[in-house]
Amino acid sequence: MTQNTLTLRKPDDWHVHLRDGAMLEFVADFTARQFARAIVMPNLTPPVTTVDQAIAYRDRINAAVPAERGFTPLMTAYLTDTISADEIERGFREGVFTAAKLYPQNATTNSAHGVSDIANIRPVLERMEKLGIPLLVHGEVVSPDIDIFDREAVFLDTVLGPLLKEMPGLRVVLEHITTEHSVEFVKAGSENLAATITAHHLRIDRNDMLVGGIRPHAYCLPVAKRRLHKLALRKAAVSGNPKFFLGTDTAPHERHAKESACGCAGIFSAPVAIESYAQTFEEEGALGKLEGFASEFGPAFYRLPFNEGTITLKRQPTDIPAALEAGDIKIVPFHAGEAMAWRLVED
Ligand code: NCD
Ligand code: ZN
Q1: Using an 8 Å Cβ cutoff, are 272 and 334 in contact?
Q2: Is residue 287 included in any domain, yes or no?
Q3: If we measure between CA atoms, which residue out of 90, 87, 88, 74 comes closest to residue 41?
Q4: Pocket lined around ligand 1, Cβ cut-off 6 Å
Q5: CA 4 to ligand 1 center in whole angstroms
Q6: Is the pLDDT of residue 43 over 70?
Q7: CATH of residue 117
Q8: Residue 328 located in a structural domain
Q9: Residue 249 among the catalytic residues
Q10: Mean pLDDT across the stretch 216-234?
Q11: What residues make up the domain containing 301?
């Protein structure tokens, strides 16, 4: 018998870009309506590198979300070459920083202040290892001589692999994995290593981006790889292995910034996130595995309690609009122009 409703323990999103200002006002509730908590990326301009900046940003997020949602933003520190271990420790002890984010310098949107060489943040990483503060990793090398489709694999082989050997106690989330190699790397790692998987990398491969015309709304970083990698990600996501959990990497950019001669990287998946994962899990015959992936494995890794409430999805074909607009802002969401099978029931 076809299942027509799906009730899940309230999920969390372990990787979001909520931006700031008018964009924050526009996008925050798309996340808050379905997720109880979200790990908020710190790649603002300027980046969130201090406890005070994180508190102020958290206040702006809370002001942008209707209070009745009961949404909790979990803040992260943006690691730079010069950030101090004391600042990270203070933020963690004060309950402001849940984690710290490693952007290799110039790897992605707003990463110009990122880390140019991991050796520069060694004392910070040692402190994080000691205190059990999760390190969230954008796992790509940036050398111009490395092909963009190989940047994740080379990062694992030349940076993350050696780092984990030297600091086996460091708790690491390899964010938005895109390859079979990463799946195997995470599976083979210790219990201190986990990974997030986005909704879009479970559905898009590089053909979706490049065949029949260049499709800027399918462009994100790390860039989608060959189909076989997408299939490996799908298998990992539905496997029930708690090392793999939900992190959308919803990354809104205005339509004009994506539809450009030099379009920005990022896919705005928040308006359709849980529905998209549900569709993928159902296609894999694994709807029963969604709750672990979306609502349990993340908090277990972060050592946070499970959420108490639930959300319900209904089988109800729903057309996703070609664009979403608020004031001057126009954004094309993931699944734009498609009909989706599931719909989140709003109370
Ligand atoms: C993100 C963004 O726009 O901030 N873009 C993306 O393609 N994922 C940055 C990031 O997570 O790499
Ligand atoms: Zn991201």
Answers
A1: yes
A2: yes
A3: 74
A4: 17, 43, 108-109, 138, 220-221, 249, 251, 265-266
A5: 34
A6: yes
A7: 3.20.20.140
A8: no
A9: yes
A10: 98
A11: 13-306
**Is residue 316 included in any domain, yes or no?**
no
Which is the catalytic residue, given 12, 13, 205, 249?
249
Percent of the chain with pLDDT over 90: 98
Q: What is the pTM of this model?
A: 0.98
Asked if 222 and 151 touch (Cβ cutoff 8 Å), the reply is yes
